[in-house]
Amino acid sequence: MTSEPELLSGEQPSGEGAGETRAERKERTRRAILDAGLTLAADSNLSAVSLRQVAKQVGVVPTAFYRHFDSLELLGLALVDESFRSLRSMLTDVWRHAPEYRDFIDGSLPIVAEHVRDNRAHYAFIARERVAGPPRVREAIGHEIEQTTRELASDIARSGAAEHYSSDDIGLLADLIVSFVVTMAERLVDDPDSEERTLAQARTQLRMLLVGALNWRSREGT
Does the UniProt entry include the keyword Flavoprotein (predicted)? Predict the structure, then answer.
């Protein structure tokens, strides 16, 4: 018995898909499913999206969806992983270009704004789904934020930029920075036309944050 054709038409991909290997076609369809999930969830959230909607958006039969993901929830988890690769990349760029506190304000804000512009769908996905997504997706986002915070804390400790901080306080500082960046990204996503005002407000907030960071000394034994 032959397997059900993946495309609605039952034909092999044409155009850009012509000459592709089976693995390449499979990866292209998977990419299309991920993109469709992002697009459809943008109107509300992933909980309101149906498998049939995703299949229709991609142009495949519903059963073909299961060749790539066992459920919409697992599609959501893949989108979480993909979205946080963008966020971790951004934080790495921020810290690499501004390892000293005094450089952090002018070095970080343009990088955050550029990353949000280039990956708007992913940041919008994080903002929506961490408060209204399926339970496992919300849990995965929380885990990714914690993991990102731990990675940033390690980077801060290695850089020596927080030499007067205890390990616990470095963790708190990293949590503060990640929370600030996530909130700022959400504001840029929600109102892209107000980017200049958002960045100006963020610049003032960072100055307030860094006044405390530069003068903080952890107590002995903490």
Answer: no
